[in-house]
From TrEMBL:
PROSITE patterns, A to Z: FPG_CAT (PS51068), ZF_FPG_1 (PS01242), ZF_FPG_2 (PS51066)
Residue span, Formamidopyrimidine-DNA glycosylase catalytic domain: 2-115
Upper lineage: Bacteria, Bacillati, Bacillota, Bacilli, Bacillales
Documented EC number(s): 3.2.2.23, 4.2.99.18
Catalytic activity: Hydrolysis of DNA containing ring-opened 7-methylguanine residues, releasing 2,6-diamino-4-hydroxy-5-(N-methyl)formamidopyrimidine; 2'-deoxyribonucleotide-(2'-deoxyribose 5'-phosphate)-2'-deoxyribonucleotide-DNA = a 3'-end 2'-deoxyribonucleotide-(2,3-dehydro-2,3-deoxyribose 5'-phosphate)-DNA + a 5'-end 5'-phospho-2'-deoxyribonucleoside-DNA + H(+)
Keyword Zinc: yes
Name of the gene: mutM
GO molecular function: oxidized purine nucleobase lesion DNA N-glycosylase activity
Pfam families: Fapy_DNA_glyco (PF01149), H2TH (PF06831), zf-FPG_IleRS (PF06827)
UniProt family annotation: Belongs to the FPG family.
Active site: 2-3, 60, 264
Note on cofactor: Binds 1 zinc ion per subunit.
Protein name: Formamidopyrimidine-DNA glycosylase
SMART domains named in the record: Fapy_DNA_glyco, H2TH
DNA sequence: AGAATCACCTGTGAGC
DNA sequence: TGCTCACAGGTGATTC
């Protein structure tokens, strides 16, 4: 499911529903989601009696800030957090339930069971994997042209692979990489070292603008994404290439193509992107 | 260093 | 209608 704009929308919608609540029990139906502590029972133990004070985000990770524990969670393809009264029937594929003292529950639902949760002592989360593997968010002041150009110019990898690499810039996934490269007029298979500085700057600006606009629209819903209040995103109306194969390019009329690159479906306009 | 492949899972839609 | 296969907003391990 979600890339940075969807995770940010989940963060914003979820915050309104759960801040200030205190956990009095945790139910874990699929233990593989819990990565730290390794034992689900230990995870459960450290979470009980914790009160939630804030929800932060880095790249595609949510960071739930409790009294003494910071829980880092990745939704991977289809993970969803929602809040329900405890008496409400459980949906299929609900794998982790945080029970609150007020009779409501934070439920984690994930058809594909790919999502992850790591609990760390407060303040330790940024010193450990997975967060140490992340580069800056696109709109972070440290995502500068000198930083980005340095990374791009000395690699033989494709620019698409570079943009998907979360250690270079965090938060872009398959949709926003394809959209960013269309906006910048760069072909996804171009090697990093082949790109001129001006093109790298065009990509950087396009990434920042695409991500910012998508956040404004509440993310992109292609298949299953909804935010924590059950609403779909609207950015799919602003897509130029993702999912548009065999449709006319909005800039030149050429049919948008879809190919396989690095194992991912890749959408582009052969006329507008070089 | 980086590419390719598999692994983790389930559901859906296309093609036969 | 029913089967099989490819594919899906992601990432991590392994192998070459």
């Amino acid at each position: 499911m979600p890339e940075l704009p969807e995770v940010e929308t989940v963060r914003q919608t979820l915050k309104q529903l759960v801040l200030g609540k205190t956990i009095n029990d945790v139910t874990i139906h699929w233990g593989n989601i819990i990565k730290q502590p390794a034992e689900p029972e230990s995870f459960k133990r450290v979470m009980i009696d914790q009160t939630l004070h804030d929800i932060d985000r880095m790249g595609k990770f949510l960071i739930f800030q409790f009294d003494d524990v910071h829980m880092v969670s990745h939704l991977r393809m289809e993970g969803k957090f929602a809040v329900h009264p405890s008496e409400e029937p459980m949906k299929k594929h609900t794998h982790v339930i945080f029970h609150f003292t007020d009779g409501t529950e934070l439920r984690y639902n994930d058809v594909r069971k790919f999502g992850t949760m790591h609990a760390f002592p407060k303040g330790e989360e940024r010193k450990n994997k997975p967060l140490t593997l992340l580069g800056p968010d696109p709109f972070d002041p440290s995502f500068t042209l000198p930083y980005f150009y340095e990374k791009v110019k000395r690699t033989t990898r494709s620019i698409k692979a570079v943009l998907l690499d979360q250690s270079v810039v965090a938060g872009l996934g398959n949709i926003y990489v394809d959209e960013t490269l269309f906006r910048a007029g760069v072909h996804p298979e171009r090697r990093g070292k082949e790109l001129a500085e001006a093109q790298v700057e065009a990509i950087r600006i396009a990434a920042i603008e695409t991500i910012n606009e998508a956040i404004q629209q509440g993310g992109t819903t292609i298949r299953t994404y909804v935010n924590s209040q059950g609403q779909i995103g609207m950015f799919q109306q602003k897509l130029y290439v993702y999912g548009k194969e065999n449709e006319a390019c909005q800039q030149c009329g050429t049919l948008i193509e879809k190919m396989k690159h690095g194992g991912r479906g890749t959408h582009y306009c052969r006329t507008c992107q070089h």
